[in-house]
Predict the 3D structure of the following.
Amino acid sequence: MRLGKLVLLGAFSSLLVGCGATAGNTASNGQMIGVTLDEYHVRLEATSIPAGSVTFEVKNTGSEKHEFVILRTSDAPAALPTDPATNKVQEEATGIEHVDEIDGVAAGGLQDLTVKLTPGTYLIVCNYPGHVHAGMVATLTVT
């Protein structure tokens, strides 16, 4: 009886390990997009992707910390509402959906973020004060 439980536990553990994704890999049905942040740009390896799971591999090649924020909106970057007190885009304003973010990527740092995106237009921004309007924005179309 005890040996049977151990064999069953071992088989179950192997099954769990086999189903998991390892660091740096995406799910078999997902896609990966490289993103480069620096002063003051957001560069995407792809600007149009199919809907579904996507892992953003975000590298900060700049000399200061930057944010990686995904906003779903049809607004043009110049039309994004900005809070005059903070000089940051209002991420929860009418017509803007905050999807997800990495709060800060250190200079020289690399972080991944996996999200499920539905069809629409997304803006990828660094929402530190003044960074969006200095040029840290890129458009991603999801079909």
In short: DSSP finds one helix and eleven strands in the chain. Residues 2-28 have pLDDT under 50 and may be disordered.
